[in-house]
Amino acid sequence: MTEPDLGALDAVATLDLDRAARRGYPEAVYCAGKSPDQVRLIAAAVRDAAQVSLFTRAHAEHAAAVLAELPDAAYDESARLLAWPPVPPTPTGGLVVVVSAGTSDLPVAREALLTAQYLGREVELVVDVGVAGLHRILGRLELLRRARVIVVAAGMDGALPGVVAGLVSAPVVALPTSVGYGAAFEGVAALLTMLNACAPGVGVVNIDNGYGAGHLAAQIAAPTPEPAPEPTEAP
Description:
Blueprint: H1 6-12, H2 19-23, E1 28-30, H3 36-48, E2 53-56, H4 60-69, E3 74-76, E4 81-84, E5 95-100, H5 106-118, E6 122-127, H6 134-138, H7 141-144, E7 149-154, H8 160-165, E8 172-176, H9 188-195, E9 202-204, H10 210-220
Parallel strand pairs: 1-2, 5-6, 5-7, 7-8, 8-9
Antiparallel strand pairs: 2-4, 3-4
Helix pairs in contact: 1-3, 3-4, 5-10
């Protein structure tokens, strides 16, 4: 195991070690655009600080660098996400249901699912229920109506979040994916459809932003804080 060069780390990143205390959720490391060596330095600092962390958008070389410093980290190759410590916390709060319109949307959906799970929520995944066969989503209504919040990942025409929002009382986090043929413009078509959703209660995150969708869902489904005790009057 290689010890971090603190001088080199200072040139790469400044870890926000107080974020969990300040916001209730730890910092995540976005690996895209970083070299494997840079990610390795950050992973070593995370280890030394005993800092809970997610590593997102990690390709195989990033994953190898993280695992060199955090060998027990959990790695989901499809979601391109690593989590350390590897065991999710005991879930609290409400249920987060993540819906993937098609199998091709599944990597982004899994990123959202794992993010919500590692941020402490109970999660369920529903796969391949796009609008080309509406009976499929209608067949999952019992589960959808138990959710505190629903994340819907869809590419192509991006219509599924609006359909789901018209069937449930929970808020829907719409997650456009870059799946689709040429006129889908790598997710722009789905993004615009979701922004123009007819059903109320739909919030939209950026294209392929599974981490952002999962984080928002975890916040929405967080436990309700206990009310502060009423002050007692002096005798």
